[in-house]
Amino acid sequence: PVADSAARSSAPLPPPPSHLRAPPEASRLPLWNTVPLQTTEGTLWEGADPWGADDNKRFMAWRVDFDRLREVWVPPRPAETQQPERAEQARGVLSHAAQQNIEITMRAADLKPDAVRRALTQDFDALSNEQAVRLAEGVLPYVTEAAGELHAMVQRRGVDALSRAEALLWSIASVPNYRARANLLSLRAVLPDDLAHLAGQIEAAERTPERLRASMPVRMLLQSILVVRNVLSQRGFSSFPLSSLHLISHERVRQEGSAGGATPMNGQAKIPTTARLVAEIVADTHDEFCRLKFWRMTAVSRCVGLDAVRKIIWSYLDDMAGTCILEAFPMLAESDTLLFDESVGRTIMHMRVRLQRSLELDIPQVRASITPAVPVAHGVGHETALASQIDELETLLRNAAHELSFSQDRLVAAAQACCSLMGSAPRSESDAFNTAQETLRSLRRLGDVVHSELHSVLREREYLRFAAASRITPGGRRAARAWGIVDTSMPTLLHTSDPDLIRIVRQRRAPNRPAAGAAAQQAPALEEEEDKTEEPTAAAGPYIDLIHGGPAGSYVRDPVTGSWGARRDGLDGGLRFDPFLGARAAAA
User: Rounded distance, CA 483 to CA 142, Å?
Assistant: First the structure.
């Protein structure tokens, strides 16, 4: 048996039976280099039939489906022609990020391919202004990149194979002169708002030097600086340059010592600065203003006894409006340097170039690409609306170009007027804008310095009045100590969670200064509010001072007795009071 098995292994392999023979064109399993074992005796292959003819007798429940094996001989469908198409379909024209951005824009603005195509070819009103802006900013940049691939894909696979984002791009790219049409559509949507915003900026820029020039409090503040500097320098200056205004915060008289040297540092620190002396003049001027106004009201009240008649008389005699020197600080704080920023001039120039390009290139191209009107049931062509809208848009663009040219001249004139406030003479438009910004910045810094010194002066004067009143008690006994006013604004701001108290503390610690660009936006609104009648508003509820108070209320100190709690004048913790122990009232 061993010799017989070895002879079978070395003999040529027998051919398959007739029922298992493959067709001549069928592919074979590539086993040409495979050599069988020399013998199968003692191996797992011993007794196995090559074609499985006798194995159904050796194994129970063993079955071979030869029909399934014959199906393997059938040649499969060629995959070479399908693979590139599947890869192209999986890849698409747009990247994943671009397709995601376009779909977000479509959902946010409710953009649909049919509406977009109708707006570009028939009627601009098919899209709202917001949709037109979203289309120009979020979709049009991708059309330029994918226009060529979209045309090739549509020719090979058709429009139905495009995705939502690709269908939107195709609705734009398939329109003749789509760039010019989309540009005109975007201009039609944003141009009125841009012109209105620019007009507000120009009006605010023109109003700024006029308000400063006509402001008596600002002139009083500058007059105070002029007097202090002239007296201390013993020289009669008529004005001071812009670059010297920031020096008042640390300049002071340098006195010589007894031995001919300079005054020591401790003695030099006691000499007030120019800003300190100016702040004292401002405080004295405000006191005189309040005293004069009080005596005027007293004189009017003694004339008649009826309050209604007193109000009528006072409305004619009150000519002190706009003469309080403290009104200079909010006016200087509102000096917005962004009104004369060079970016405003560049924006105007960019808008003029864009309008000129649209008038010379886009409108002629769109008019040439508009097909003649096709008659319909009502006798009006489907291109009639677009043609009339193009004519209206051309008129709008020409008027806007003329208005922008005039706005540029107005802005330069306003900058030059602002420069002339402090005697500066710019040599060019760019120099005018820079000098106007520096002028407003210096005036605002000047207001901040004097305002800070004014708070210090008012606190010290309040302390002196409090100390003088606390020296002698009503019983004739001298007080042991005169307590000064404690500024509790910063500890209160760090520990409180009351939004009303936080707002009061922040308003007190920093002068009222609007955000950048707020002066241009708030000026028209303030003029409209002046004509409206002020409605009474509900007063805010009482709050608790976490430094000098508790759950039962906030406590105040009696300025005479120095005791805490209910005062002799009837003021207690349940009433509205000053959370800064009189410091804020003194500063006001």
Answer: 73
